[in-house]
């Protein structure tokens, strides 16, 4: 079954402004299978999952929820302990965290989050969901000025994605009202 992959547009803008990253970068990492780990919290009355993803030179915790029809990315937190564990160094820029983010980070440090069973299988599963969600079914040709194309290519390079993906993402955000 194909699932959609989504997030809150306002949170994405906040992350881009404050942490210089966004959910689209996470989706690109998921698409190519660049997931360091998938963790889950199993406690009475609580459940959740986290992707651990490398962005730039640090490991980031990406909490998400999963339902029958979709995967909702909730946040992106750089984490020094995760960076040390997964990448072998503690070079992670300290960030101001909200109360909720501090609680999540604290639970991670206390070892309450455990690796999912059969990590490789879960990575393949999430990767297939992302690929299906990003699958393009229609081809569109457009004409634009060389300056605009160059600007889009430069922006895509800054975002770390192909320029066609950036164009499709902007159009999708416009159509869904999150632009």
Largest sheet: 7 strands, mixed
Backbone structural class: alpha+beta
Mean pLDDT: 85
Low confidence ranges: none
Strand content: 15-25%
Number of strands: 7
Quote the distance from N terminus to C terminus.
28 Å
Fold and architecture overview:
There is one protein chain. The protein contains 7 helices and 7 strands. It is α+β, with helices and mostly antiparallel strands and 179 residues long. The chain has 2 domains: 4-135, no CATH class; 138-179. Strands 1, 2, 3, 4, 5, 6 and 7 form a 7-stranded mixed β-sheet that branches. Strand 4 and strand 5 form a beta hairpin. It starts with a strand and ends with a helix.
Which properties best describe this structure?
179 residues; alpha+beta; 2 domains; seven-stranded mixed β-sheet; 7 strands
Topology:
Elements: E1 4-7, H1 9-19, H2 23-31, E2 35-43, E3 46-55, E4 58-66, E5 70-73, E6 77-78, H3 80-87, H4 99-109, E7 113-115, H5 119-134, H6 146-159, H7 163-176
Parallel strand pairs: 1-5
Antiparallel strand pairs: 2-3, 2-7, 3-4, 4-5, 4-6
Helix pairs in contact: 6-7
Quick take:
This protein has 7 helices and 7 strands. With 179 residues, it is of the alpha+beta class.
